[in-house]
Amino acid sequence: MELRKYIERLNDNNWEQFTTFVKSWFHDRYILTIKEFVEWQYKTPFSKTSNINVFVVKIKEKVMGFLGVIPLSFNYFGKDIYGVCLANWQIDETLQSKGFGYEMLDVALSDAQIAYTTAYKPVLERLYDKTGWQVHSDKQEQMLVRRFVKIFDAEKVRKMIGKEDMVFNDVKNISANDEFKFSQVNSFNKSIDSFWESVKKKYKITVNRNSKYLNWRYKNHPMFDYKLFVTEKDDEIKAFVVVRLEKSGKYTTGRIVDFAAEDNAEEFMLNAVCKWLLEQKVDLADFSFTGDFHESTLESTGFKETNEEPYASIPYLFSPIDHKRRSTNFAFKIIDENLKNLGIATYNNFYITRGDCDQDRPNSR
Q1: I need a labelling partner for 331 at 20 to 30 A (CA). Which of 56, 171, 288, 352 fits?
Q2: Nearest CA to 358 among 117, 44, 65, 107?
Q3: Residue 140, pLDDT score
Q4: Given this model, what pLDDT does residue 172 score?
């Protein structure tokens, strides 16, 4: 069977068949049935085409699988390159083990220099491993997204996880100095571009966090309301942070979904945004990311990594609260072999936050 002929882009002609397949696997209000969201996520400002970057398997006028691709601009050791994030992959059980997965992956990565994915299904680990993706750390363990949490109301968090006897270090008093200026902004202007050019060497492999990306991802999100903050000194941006308040019943979580800073502004920015979160009466805050970044500053400002109890029991998902899922996996592939001349990619120097993939998205039900 020539598999490539059954793979096509998502478009108006196959949209109905696509949503029928999505509903059969998930539910009628699943986020990928909302066309406005699908077009926003898969037709980014960095796409090389004006079409939707979702590839579907269509056999006899019936969609039987799909793979979503988010086009992005990347920083790779100081060089701007074209990369993609694989986000949402599903294929009908009758087509599994017939080669469609490899064919879809080949189509999706055809013009990318680098690719990554998060929260992929365990069944895909073998496929990624066989096609040159890095899925394991040096210790041969599955690579995971790191998560740090800060407790503001220990009593409510204990009730949330149903463990009244757990001891948390909650934070009530947050200090900040006057060296920097912290403010909320409606959008990111060209000043953020100058900041990113000066700081991107710190984040060796990551999505380019310029105004084009940040405004598309956060200011222009079709469904979520993100709060945007900057730290300045002498009228120059030294850090930014993006936050989303997530309510689930009587609990409120402050999701730090993006963050970048010059070294000497890290602590001020985290303290300042936590002071703001405290004013919003959140019960806890969290920040998820990959790589070896910000750890000492997060710890000094009261954040705890969720790799051990009692913090490991804090839910990863809040809408609705899910006590089963505690982590998110991560994998990447360097497709352009010439990039290795600039530097070797490892988990520790690859910086991806919750906002850089599709993990921070509405969960319509």
Answers
A1: 56
A2: 117
A3: 60
A4: 52
Determine what percent of the chain falls in helix, strand and coil, rounding each to the nearest 5: 30, 30, 40
CATH code given to domain 1-145+328-365: 3.40.630.30
Cβ atoms 115, 84 nearer than 8 A: yes
- The 3 state secondary structure assigned to 47-81 is CCCCCCCEEEEEECCEEEEEEEEEEEEEEECCEEE
Give the right CATH number for 147-321 from 3.40.50.1980, 3.40.630.30, 3.30.420.10, 3.40.50.720.
3.40.630.30
Q: 138 pLDDT exceeds 70?
A: no
The per-residue pLDDT for range 312-354, each reduced to its tens digit, is 888 887 776 666 777 899 999 999 999 999 999 999 999 999 9
CA distances from 77 to 52, 115, 205, 237, 357 (A): 29, 15, 6, 22, 20
Taking the alpha carbons at both ends of the chain, their separation in whole angstroms is 38
Question: Whole-model pTM?
Answer: 0.94
